[in-house]
Every structure is written in C-alpha cells, then in structure tokens.
Backbone:
C-alpha cells in the first residue's frame, strides 16, 4: 500500500509541475533567484542520492563492490562514454568484483 | 539524461537560411529518443530489485515518466523510506521540468487544448532536442518525435527490465544495485559546470552521508537539498561569490 501511495503522490506532483510550466505566466518563474534555485536543486539531490546509493546500506555506511562500480562509471563519464555504457560499466564492474571476492 | 545541446538561433526569429529539413530533425529526435529510451531497462531492473511489483514498476514509468524522479522514488522505497519522504524527494527532482515547460511554451506556442497532453513529455530530453532546433516548426517536430519515441521505448524497456530482473533473481549478484547511483552520477556530471554547482554537490554529499545513520530513511536526502539555497545564500553574501559564474539557466537568461 505504501508503494502505491508513493507512486500516486509522485505521479500527481510530477505531472502538476510539468503542466504548471506550460500554463503559468512566465513572469512567475522568470525571477533570477527562482531560476537559479531550480537549476541548483537537482545538483544537490543527485549528488546526495549518488553518494547514498553508493555507500548506504539501510541506515549504515559501508564500503562494498558498488564503490568500485560507481567509480568505474565516473571514469567512463570522464571519457565521455554514452549514458548506457556508463551504467553498463557500473553494473559489470560491481558484478565482477562480487564474483571475485 | 540531460543532454548538452548547441545553442542555436531563437526559434521565433526564423531565418530561411537556417531552415532545417524535417528529416534531419526527425533523425536527431529519434537518436535521442532511442538512446535514452533504452535506459528504461535499467529502471525496470532497479525497480524490480527494489521490490516493486511488475504493475507498480510499469505504472511508475507510465505515470511519472521522468527518469531521475523514478530512480529516486524506488531507491527511497528500497531503503525503507516512508511513502511521503520518498515521494517528496522524487517530486523535488521533478521540479526542474516546470522550468523546461516555461521555455517550451514560449518555443512551441502550443494551443491551450494540447498542453495537458504535451505536459507529460516535458522532460530533459524533449526540451534539449526542441531547444536545439532553428525554427518553431523544427522545434515542434523535434519535441513530438522525441516525446513519442521516448515514451514508447522507455515504457517498453521498463517492462522488459522488470521481467528480466524477475527472471535472473538476485539482482545484487549481477551488480544491478550499482545501476541507480551510476544513473544519478551520469545525470549529475554535466551539471557540475562551475564552482557553485560543485560546492553544492560537495555539501549535499556531506549532508546526505552524514545524516544517513541518524535520520529516518528518505529524510537525509531532503535535508541535503538545502545545500542549494545555502550555497546560493553564501554566494549572494560574497558578492560575485565562488566561481562568480552564474548557472547556465541564469546565463541563458541573460542572453535573451
């Protein structure tokens, strides 16, 4: 049930902000501070999520094969690899390290 | 999934010399739509690994249809977050789409009746393709073709990914728990353009990891979001601030 609540709330909220952008007068969202905050918010969220899903295990911080996998994805990104390759490298390295250890 | 796009002419000032063949626009749009659409597979696998049922996974892609929010949602649920904090994190990640919508409504000049239907496709990729086109006609074609291609493929590959994850069983043995953070990293990397973005990312990582052991699941990432207003505030206090360079959103604004 909790999962359905989460999906429902997220679906309604995400659709509402998409539609709002198409409907609201430009002046509301054109204020520089609002724009800059909106541009910076995903940076904060994505950085925190990347770190948590790399080092987090429930409510503990751990070092496991994911660290090497995500690190390899970082190298792939630096080499300008396409999106799917980046994700594939992370999965393959993580699986490889788990198989070896 | 945020693609870098070349800055091109304003679409409301079409120059006949810039007219782009429709076929070229369709080709660009299909390229983005197919490449990103395929990564729905990673979402399907991650969502199934997080414990969502096949129906829940597919409805997430059909109804939410904005990748970062979807990964954040299933990640938070997998970590044991309550539905409200999980939804809040996903929602805040989706807020940027409102700003894409703002740009697109000026660019595409959609009729009011079409807007509710077009809204679901207002995401990183469709915006990137539409903004890269030289004329309004090309922008409309680019938006529509990218939207259709991506919506169909993203949902199809979500289904296949979820089925695949169920078939292989232990997703961790296959390293699939690394797909989520790799997706986030790939989305984040192109955003780290200046010292402001990097300072925000570092502060958010410190908050996200530091608070993980002490706050309920899903809450630390919401607190980490405060890194954005904090860094903007500190930058404002310092005048030009670290790096001085405004974010791309702001600098594009100045070009108008």
Residues:
């Amino acid at each position: 049930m909790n999962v359905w609540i989460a999906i429902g709330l997220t679906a309604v909220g995400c659709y509402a902000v998409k539609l709002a952008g198409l409907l609201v007068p430009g002046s509301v969202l054109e204020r520089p501070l609002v724009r800059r905050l909106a541009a910076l918010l995903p940076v904060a969220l994505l950085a925190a999520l990347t770190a948590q899903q790399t080092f987090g295990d429930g409510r503990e911080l751990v070092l496991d094969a994911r660290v090497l996998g995500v690190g390899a994805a970082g190298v792939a990104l630096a080499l300008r690899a396409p999106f799917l390759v980046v994700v594939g490298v992370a999965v393959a390295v993580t699986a490889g390290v788990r198989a070896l250890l | 999934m945020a693609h870098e796009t070349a800055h091109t002419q304003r679409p409301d000032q079409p120059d006949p010399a810039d007219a782009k063949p429709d076929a070229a626009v369709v080709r660009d749009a299909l390229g983005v739509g197919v490449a990103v659409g395929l990564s729905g597979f990673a979402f399907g696998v991650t969502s199934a690994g997080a414990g969502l049922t096949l129906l829940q996974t597919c409805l997430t892609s059909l109804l939410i249809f904005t990748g970062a929010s979807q990964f954040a949602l299933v990640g938070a649920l997998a970590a044991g977050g309550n539905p409200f904090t999980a939804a809040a994190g996903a929602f805040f990640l989706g807020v940027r789409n409102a700003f894409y919508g703002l740009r697109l409504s000026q660019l595409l000049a959609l009729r009011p009746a079409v807007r509710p239907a077009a809204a679901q496709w207002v995401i990183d990729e469709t915006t990137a393709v539409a903004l890269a086109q030289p004329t309004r006609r090309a922008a409309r074609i680019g938006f529509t073709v990218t939207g259709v291609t991506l919506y169909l493929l993203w949902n199809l590959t979500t289904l296949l990914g979820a089925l695949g994850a169920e078939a292989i069983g232990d997703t961790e043995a296959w390293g699939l728990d690394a797909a989520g953070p790799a997706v986030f990293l790939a989305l984040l990397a192109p955003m780290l353009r200046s010292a402001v973005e990097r300072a925000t990312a570092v502060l958010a990582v410190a908050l996200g990891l530091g608070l993980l052991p002490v706050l309920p699941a899903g809450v630390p990432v919401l607190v980490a979001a405060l890194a954005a207003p904090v860094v903007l505030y500190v930058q404002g206090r310092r005048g030009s601030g670290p790096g001085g360079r405004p974010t791309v959103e702001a600098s594009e604004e100045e070009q108008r």
Q: What stands out?
A: The radius of gyration of chain A is 19 Å.
